[in-house]
Amino acid sequence: MVLVSTKMGAKILSRVAKITPFNAYYTEDDPWSEARRKGLHIPDNIARKYEICELDLLIQLPNSEVNYPPKPGDEVLKIDLESHYEDIFGISRDEPGYVWFGSLFGYKNAPIPLDIEKVPMHMAVFGTTGSGKSFSTGVLIEKFMCISAGENRAVSFPMIIIDANGDYLEYDKYFKQAYQDIDSKIRPVGWVKRFVFPHIAYQNSELRGEPVIGVDLDRLSVKEIAETIVMYHKGSLDGAELQISGIVTLLDYLRENEGYDSLHEFFVDDDLYDELIGKLRNFDTKRIAAATKPAIERAFAKFREIESNYKILSAKKESELTQDEFIDDITENGGIAIIDFSEEGATGVDIQVKQLVMTYLANLLFNKFSKYKIENRTRYLIFLIEEAQNFIPDKSYPISSSLAKNKLSLIATQGRKFGLSLCIVTQRPSFIDKIVLSMCNTFFIHRISPDDVSYVRTATGGLPSSLETRLTRLTQGHMIVTGQMNKLPFPLMISIPKADRIVPHPMGTTDVISTLKKLREGFDYI
């Protein structure tokens, strides 16, 4: 950053966009080219040399639009950011309602303010593997753990985190220690809990006793249950209209005419399941075609694998995720629920099962927050989704269909009205559903793939060319921040210092050599 001081008295904050060195001895068709070709010595120290700096004019201080460009001869000065913070951002460093994030590129201690009031308008974090995406997302999570609320108080933002790769599991371990050992900067958090799949909790002694993931099918509509069953069986809903319609017809009949209060139990209890199959086989063929019944029965049998393999249906009785008070607890107490979809907490779990859990959570959140709105009970929550392309895929992504997509799209379009915010985290933004991403209003952009540049340009509403050209070569830990949470009306390039993260991040570390050494212990080398 530099400051242009004009003769009219204006002070214009500018960003160096490009630096081009000039040397009179090294220009096209200069008179020294023949001498260089012959290898003669050229006295470089007497050459006319200078550098041309192109500037992006950002704002006129204090924090207003640039009305007139500077003129030749106006001074360009190095700016002391510390003394100009309030002029630039319009707020002091202790202003409540903001978190201070990262550091402006080129400066060691120059964090930028993020407006917490804009969180409900949804966020997106982009970055390829190795770009620092997960590390900086962790720093962002920590900032949301301690938000200045004025009067010497701090609050935490409630969060549900879908952890696809185990990048945030350290928070669960960290908050298990004594309260006095927790860093005061993140102490306002009410609680942190890690939820794992039941079959893993039963098999892994280290995870025994951890809260488990459970699903209550009765919280889904009959159509959602039918689509879930077919999706799990076929992997797609294409061409399955008759099966879906038949399942809806059967389940509606059982609930309305046979007096079954719970459809969930049909897929948990063996006797009730046999009864369900009997009802299907004997059902009026005018309402469910005879040719469709075997396909439905196969879908039912396949769906029961969810229970036999993963136990998430029978976990309904013990899982906090199926309790009415769960969302109340997390929103009232500033809790953080980490849904462990990593290989450690979800070993061998199919993507369709994870999509079922996502469908359930999205449905639970949308319905609960809709109820809060109707009852005039304002609540807020961030639903952060890692590897979001698996749950909100665009048609170009191999997993082009996802049950969770419809409900998450509904949260994207309507959630901001009642305090439910999405935070989409992905390596490939072009694989995210365009409608959902168009609803995001703040973007944290790390290094991305060249194939994603045009898509990011469209999603963000455009970036200055000086920043857009850097998108594919940003170094690890550097990012561009743009959108509503950014206090300034132009994108900012920042870095995330390693010291900014309180809870250590595994950073994809491995232990190859020591593991191989241990496995080959006792081997005689020749």
From TrEMBL:
Residues 101-363 form the Helicase HerA central domain. GO terms for molecular function: 3'-5' DNA helicase activity; 5'-3' DNA helicase activity. Transmembrane segments: none annotated. It catalyses: ATP + H2O = ADP + phosphate + H(+); Couples ATP hydrolysis with the unwinding of duplex DNA by translocating in the 3'-5' direction. InterPro entries: HerA-like, HerA_central, P-loop_NTPase. It comes from the Archaea. Belongs to the HerA family. This is Helicase HerA central domain-containing protein. It comes from Methanothermobacter defluvii.
